[in-house]
Structure formats: C-alpha cells, structure tokens
Amino acid sequence: MASLTTDNKRVLLQELEAIDHVFDYMLIDTGAGIASNVMYFNMAAQEIIVVVTPEPTSLTDAYAMIKILYQTHREKRIMVLVNMVRSPYEARDVFTKLSKASEHFLNLTIEYLGYVLYDERVTEAVRRQGALVELYPHSQASKCLFTIAEKICHEQPVNFNSGSIKFFSKAIVERDHG
C-alpha cells in the first residue's frame, strides 16, 4: 500500500466504490507520515482523524500531517485521537500541545475526538490476530474505542461533498492520470 501506482489506486477505489453501499463507515488506516499515498487516502476521506501518541516523534508527525492537510489541501476540519495514554489527563495534555501549535502557527482549531488508554490487551489481540473489541470487549482500550465509535456515529459529517470515494476517484485519480 505504501507505493501504489496511479493504476493501483484507481483499481482500489473502484473496488471500494463497489462495496460503498454495504457499510455505514469505512475506516482507512494510512499509517504515519506525509508520503503521497498517505495524503492521497486522507483526501479521499469525508472525515479525517489524526492519531497521535505521547511520543515526541508522533506529535511532530501529527503536526506535519495537519499542516499539509490545511495549507496544501485546505482541510479545515481535523479531529485528533490520542492513543496509548496512561490517563485521560495525559491525553488532554498531548492534545493541548498539538492544538496550541496548530492555533499558533496555522491559525487552525483542531477537534478533540477522544483517547485510547494504553492496554496490554492490545498486544495480546495482535498476537492472537483478532479484533481487540471481540477478544477483550471489557478491556480499557475497548471501552475507549466504544466511546469513540459512539461519538462518531452520533455526529454527522460537516461536509458530505468533500472527500468520499466517488468524489475522490473522479476528481483526484483522473487528475493524477491525466
């Protein structure tokens, strides 16, 4: 996925369009960084959620992503999820650092979506190659994920016209190919 060609992207987006009607939500984990394919799929999204951890490198990567999304692609609504924190207070602290930098240097207000607590069950679920919320539905991390999912499900996207697979495939893929 890190080095998809324009043709690969077109085929993938056609396949996603084919199943678009089956799902209410489709989450695409682009991974960290600002590589072209990461930005490509972020621009396909109706909603953008930047995931950050307390690590300084993660904060730097998250800020770089937000900066490019805002300055280059004019994205004005960016939500932040803080992952692998020890407490809600640590999550707020991480978000506040990122939020202050975004406001000060970009004049952009980002939104706090929530947090996922550090939980050894996540590692165990990965080892077992299963979904955390299915294997350990009562774990701390699962409870955080349920809270975030509920928040997402009860909130309507601000702009249905930006993002979305159909808009994206016509406006971006054809531009890249032409």
Describe what this molecule looks like in 3D.
- The chain is mostly helical and 178 residues long.
- Helix content is 55%, strand content 10%.
- The two termini are 22 Å apart.
- Mean pLDDT is 82; it is low at 160-178.
- What is the CA-based Rg, rounded? 17 Å
Q: Report on the biggest sheet.
A: 3 strands, parallel
Structural category: mainly alpha
Average predicted confidence as pLDDT:
82
Order of helices and strands: HHEHEHEHHHH
Portion in beta strands: 5-15%
Number of helices: 8
Low-confidence stretches: 160-178
Overall number of strands: 3
Order of adjacent strands in the largest pleated sheet: 1-2-3
How do the helices and strands line up, and which of them pair or pack?
Elements: H1 6-19, H2 36-44, E1 49-52, H3 56-71, E2 79-85, H4 88-106, E3 111-117, H5 120-128, H6 132-135, H7 140-153, H8 165-177
Helix pairs in contact: 1-8, 3-4
